[in-house]
Design a protein that fits this description.
By secondary structure, this protein is α+β, with helices and mostly antiparallel strands. The protein is 43% helix and 22% strand. β2 and β3 form a beta hairpin. The chain is elongated. The mean pLDDT is 83.
């Protein structure tokens, strides 16, 4: 049986094509996750600079007030977590959580939900703030 497999180039071609397809889809998935992280990171940076971001449908007054207090000290983005925060903070509706820190040691978490399914593969899209908290 082993000699038959070595003699059959179709089998080897199918194996090589299968591996290439898996690598292609794996790379595409990783690239898309990285792009999503970049989108969320830019929203966080915009919130730090202006307490608003053009990608957000609206920033509610509670978050604006909390951001103003939080940004009394120099702040920056800490990390992005794709998906929602665990319960009791999250309820499965957020597509990402932004985590910010400031010079006073304060932390702020913001839960965002992507609004449009069509924009899922585009760089433009709209987002809703579905919650915020102090981790």
């Amino acid at each position: 049986m082993r000699t038959e497999m070595h003699k059959n180039p179709i089998t080897w071609l199918a194996i090589i094509v299968g591996i290439c397809v898996l690598l292609f889809f794996g790379y595409g998935y990783a690239h898309m996750r990285a792009m999503r992280r970049d989108w969320y990171w830019s929203i966080g940076e915009q919130l730090i600079k202006t307490t608003n971001a053009p990608q957000l449908v609206a920033v509610n007054p509670g978050l604006k007030n909390r951001l103003s207090e939080f940004l009394a000290f120099p702040a920056g983005m800490n990390r992005i977590a794709l998906g929602d925060a665990p319960s009791p903070i999250g309820n499965g509706t957020a597509t990402a959580c932004l985590f910010m820190t400031n010079a006073a040691g304060g932390q702020l978490g913001i839960r965002l939900r992507r609004d449009d399914a069509l924009g899922r593969f585009q760089s433009t899209g709209t987002f809703h703030v579905v919650g915020f908290w102090t981790p």
